[in-house]
Design goal:
Helix content is 34%, strand content 19%. It is an alpha/beta fold. The chain has a four-stranded antiparallel β-sheet with strand order 1-2-4-3. It has a four-stranded mixed β-sheet with strand order 5-6-7-8, with helices on one face. It starts with a helix and ends with a strand. It binds flavin mononucleotide (FMN).
Amino acid sequence: MTLKEAIEERHSVRAFDERPIPPEVLDALRRCIDKCNKKARLNMQLVTNEPRAFSGPKAHYGHFMGCRNYIAIVGKKTDDFEERCGYYGEYLVLKAQQLGLNSCWVGLTFSKVKDAFLVRGDEKLCAVIALGYGITQGSSHKSRPIASVTKTDGSMPAWFREGVRCALLAPTALNQQRFMIELKGKKVYMSAGKGPYTKTDLGIARLHFEIGAGKDNFEWGKR
Ligand SMILES: Cc1cc2nc3c(=O)[nH]c(=O)nc-3n(C[C@H](O)[C@H](O)[C@H](O)COP(=O)(O)O)c2cc1C
């Protein structure tokens, strides 16, 4: 499965069956987490066989069932912390999908279990990603129209349209999709709107855009 196929097939899944994740799948995930941590200067951690985070009232409210495995997205708080967590956390989501797992980003509807993972003095927990074998594969979310999340000078090249399509398939908190993608020449500018977790959402959608558009077709612009 390519990363683009993983984008198409991924939907949030909140109810998991009893099947344990085989050790070789966990090892593959751990290797990927280690690589991303080095690249992104994060401290993301795989937590296995830990049912407490998703058994309290918050998880019940969020309709979570049978979740015992998750990734804690932890790192040092910097200006771009949330966006970096989004970008690299979503890379792990897509890798998990390639490994046959289902997932769900969770910012609120879980309980923080103190001894399950490490958050050092200068670090922060951004969110967790629930993992497991879903009872279903989830379902497609409603997407905003392309025109409402883009700005272009004139015509829209096919690679840009494909990037935006993939960005709109990204998970966002409350499915808010509050980002703007602007094309100026060969440069693409992406910005976040206001709302909860919009900076994390921006990192997630940025990865999806890159995969959809193809990195060779454009350069990221900064403002
Ligand atoms: C940063 C972030 C935080 C989220 N927090 C929660 C949460 O606390 N509880 C929950 O049930 N879903 C949460 N979600 C999942 C979104 O509701 C979901 O991604 C969105 O509705 C789109 O659906 P899809 O992921 O199936 O495409 C979160 C998603 C993101 C990206």
